[in-house]
Design brief:
The protein is of the alpha/beta class. Helices cover about 20% and strands about 25% of the residues.
Length: about 260
């Protein structure tokens, strides 16, 4: 197995500009905003949004927030990054924002609203690992890249009752009993199963896996074991695998490839 230091930003460049969707668990929101900031620093215009619901973000120096019920009324960012989504309405949680539909995001892409549109396509309630329900993730049809995210802390002993969001779906796909130790083989099944983390990915989209939390003790070894389990399947999915950290300088990550 080969291991090389790469820039995630440069790894995405051949597939864009376009729509990049994040799905899974283990730090998607942090990754979304950090990736948006990096693209903005590189001189790109970026829209960060969601096709589900997520915690209402606070405006940042590089990321103004627009809560707009009608995405057709959004003003494009002249430069840099913008976060936009629907505000809560009528009985919805005011601490959440609500996503635009896949068709609405495709329409924004079609009118060249921004060079890059980054989409959080499902939620995981803060868990490092997620198995999707039948209706998720929600991907626009014009998606160029699906960035599947897992948190490598799912392999570590934890005080959490279970590191998996929707453990019943994970059990269906992998045979693991809720509460049992998560193994690299089980996660490899989640990643490669047609109803796993990349479920509903458009046929033309690239499937990249970002293994987050590789800075925690013991997680690099766990990520390497996962890579071996994936490569042993010999099916060429995901198209690329990265070990990094969304919490610090994640853009410089390790890319693992079969020997």
């Amino acid at each position: 197995m080969r291991c090389q230091q790469v820039s995630l930003l440069q790894e995405l460049e051949p597939f864009g500009p376009g729509i990049v969707c994040l799905a899974g668990g283990g730090g998607k929101t942090t990754l979304l905003f950090a990736l948006g900031a990096a693209l903005a620093r590189a001189g790109q215009s970026v829209l960060c949004t969601t096709s589900t619901r997520m915690c209402r973000p606070k405006p940042r120096q590089y990321l103004p927030v627009s809560l707009e019920p009608d995405p057709a009324s959004l003003a494009p960012p002249p430069a840099g990054a913008l976060f936009a989504a629907r505000p809560a309405s009528g009985g919805q949680d005011p601490d959440k924002v609500y996503g635009y539909s896949a068709a609405e995001i495709d329409a924004l892409h079609g009118r060249a609203f921004a060079s890059w549109i980054l989409v959080e396509a499902d939620g995981a309630a803060g868990k490092p690992l997620k198995a999707p329900a039948e209706h998720e993730p929600v991907f626009p049809g014009e998606t160029a890249v699906v960035l599947g995210v897992i948190g490598l802390s799912c392999f570590l002993p934890s005080s959490q009752p279970d590191p998996v969001f929707r453990p019943e779906y994970f059990s269906t796909l992998t045979g693991r009993v809720p509460g049992e130790t998560v193994t690299p083989e089980a996660v490899a099944m989640l990643i490669t199963h047609p109803r796993g983390i990349f479920q509903h990915t458009p046929d033309t989209a690239k499937r990249l896996l970002f293994c987050n939390q590789a800075d925690l003790p013991g997680t690099f070894e766990a990520g390497t074991a996962l890579a071996h389990a994936l490569f042993a399947r010999g099916i060429g999915l995901p198209h690329a695998l990265y070990l990094g950290s969304a919490r610090r300088d994640f853009l410089q990550c390790r890319k693992l490839s079969p020997a």
